[in-house]
Amino acid sequence: MSGREQLAAAARRVAAEGLVVGTGGNLSVREGADVLVTASGVDLSRCTADDVVAVAPDGTPRDPEAAAPTSELPLHLGVYADTDALAVVHVHAPWSTAIACVLDELPVAHYQQLLLGGPIRVAPYATFGTPELAAGVRSALEGRSAALMANHGAVAHGSSLEQALERALLLEWLSALHHRASALGPVRTLTEEQQHEVVLAALARHYGSPA
Ligand SMILES: C[C@H](O)[C@@H](O)[C@@H](O)C(=O)COP(=O)(O)O
User: Fold this and answer.
1) Ligand 1 centroid vs 20 CA: distance in angstroms?
2) Does residue 211 belong to any structural domain of this protein?
3) What is the pLDDT at residue 206?
4) What DSSP line would sit under 96-119, residue for residue?
5) Is the pLDDT of residue 101 over 90?
6) Given Cys at both, which of 50, 129, 166, 204 links 71, Cβ 3.0 to 4.6 Å?
7) How deeply is 118 buried, as exposed, middle or buried, from its count of CB atoms within 10 A (0-12, 13-18, 19+)?
8) Is residue 210 in some structural domain?
9) What is the Cα 126 distance to its own chain's centre?
10) Residue 192: active-site member
11) What global pTM score does this model have?
12) Cα–Cα distance measured from residue 57 to residue 102, given in angstroms and rounded to the nearest whole number
């Protein structure tokens, strides 16, 4: 499969997993020095390789005749500038977005959240596609592989499309968990010491590295 086909397949999976409805999200993947991104206004459930646009690292489309890249291009390029990520997924997933309409931070109630780096910050609200939104998301992502976006959605990055997508799914699961736990009573969060112990235990077991 070409890089374009892989990105389109990941976009369709994001829709199939219920992380987006219609055009509410976008994805990108690095291809050499360039970045492949979904075009703006694409229904991700029907995304094909023709809906993928190649841009240079400064965001200039490689093919001026091609469709416009996603309106969140500044966000995607900013993440690549700040991290060693190879793929970025932005979604309007229901539980993540609900939490991002209420909280300023998703605390660590379940230790699996440490796979995303710790408490998940909620980037301040800014109009979609603006440099302000991209800047807020970039700082919310510091030391994290995922962030929430106030009154908007979520973003996750990884060393592959698969990993970025799994992280967006994990954040969605954690957001739903927080909602359910809060409905039962005050949420008991892990102390910093408990979080540290989890990281040490995972390192000792090489958790997540089958080889
Ligand atoms: C208005 C857009 O839906 C915006 O919310 C953006 O964040 C989004 O998810 C889809 O924009 P594109 O279709 O331009 O990728």
Assistant:
1) 10
2) no
3) 81
4) HHHHHTT-SEE---SGGGGGGTSS
5) yes
6) 129
7) middle
8) no
9) 17
10) no
11) 0.95
12) 35
